[in-house]
Design a protein that fits this description.
Elements lengths: L6 E5 L4 H12 L3 E6 L2 H9 L6 E5 L5 H14 L5 E4 L13 H29 L2 E6 L12 H21 L4 E6 L18 H11 L7 H14 L3 E2 L4 H11 L1 H16 L1
Helix pairs in contact: 1-7, 3-4, 4-5, 8-9
């Protein structure tokens, strides 16, 4: 699928990877609806983009009503949606003490937002014979996230849902990609306030010591190159593939290695 002339929706576009993807899409000739729960943040991103190439919405990426609103905005402003970037995400609370409400929030944004967007768009894409769903998961969805069960579990689920979409609808013209980076220099990794909880600090150290922390613009460039080639798995950190292979080749050895890594980070 071609980016030039396409219509795209990017959730979580108020900063980080989402904002970088939106900029790269516009630079590539796409018309883009940017949406984020933080309306002021997404407006600041849009202020640096050509006004005739973008439209704005703010709201919960996991809410059916907001998804309907965003898709309608895209259709009425630019035309049928070609690309949907399910990029919004939250870290969630660390450890076993995460509450049910915190689990619900992570599941809503990191997983069910993808399910509901696909439910809204995929039938029309099947009828048209084309459409592209891009899920932002994480290397944590292939490996794990030290310190945060909510993040690790929901990102595994995001990868699983993207796989299912590809298997189920890939032969009917629906393309699917799943973005799984390690560390990216965003507010999700480096919030404005330093972590005060030991497990939150562990989560941050685990990511920043695992490999090079990329800029959001670097990730966006990899994403656009991958969707032009229609690759399912998008790995801005190439070493993640080797880690994933090691995990699959000997799960017990991988678990022991992760236990040692955890001990080294907490000693």
């Amino acid at each position: 699928m071609r980016i030039n002339g396409a219509v795209a929706v990017v959730t979580g576009a108020g900063g980080g990877i989402g904002a970088a993807i939106a900029r790269a899409l516009v630079d590539g000739g796409a018309r883009v609806v940017l949406t984020d729960i933080n309306g002021d943040a997404v407006a600041r991103v849009a202020a640096d983009l050509p006004p005739d190439a973008v439209a704005l919405a703010s709201g919960d990426a996991g809410a059916d009503e907001h998804i309907d609103e965003v898709v309608a905005l895209a259709e009425n402003t630019f035309g049928p949606v070609d690309f949907y970037f399910a990029n919004a995400g939250i870290m969630g609370a660390p450890g076993l003490h995460a509450t049910d409400a915190q689990w619900d929030a992570a599941l809503n944004v990191n997983v069910l937002a993808h399910v509901r967007a696909a439910r809204r768009l995929v039938p029309g894409w099947v009828e048209r014979g084309s459409g592209y769903f891009i899920s932002t998961a994480s290397a944590a969805g292939l490996l794990t996230q030290l310190g945060s069960a909510t993040y690790s579990v929901t990102k595994h689920a995001a990868v699983g849902f993207a796989e299912w979409l590809s298997v189920t609808y890939g032969a009917q013209g629906v393309k699917v990609s799943c973005l799984c980076p390690m560390g990216v220099d965003t507010a999700l990794l480096r919030p404005s306030e330093a972590p005060t909880d030991a497990e939150q600090a562990l989560m941050q150290r685990a990511v920043t010591t695992a490999g090079r922390v990329l800029t959001a613009d670097e990730v966006a460039a990899v994403v656009l190159a991958a969707i032009v080639e229609e690759h399912f798995l998008i790995l801005p950190h190439a070493e993640v593939l080797d880690m994933y292979r090691h995990k699959g080749s000997d799960y017990d050895r991988w678990l022991r290695g992760m236990q040692r890594y955890l001990s080294a980070l907490t000693s």
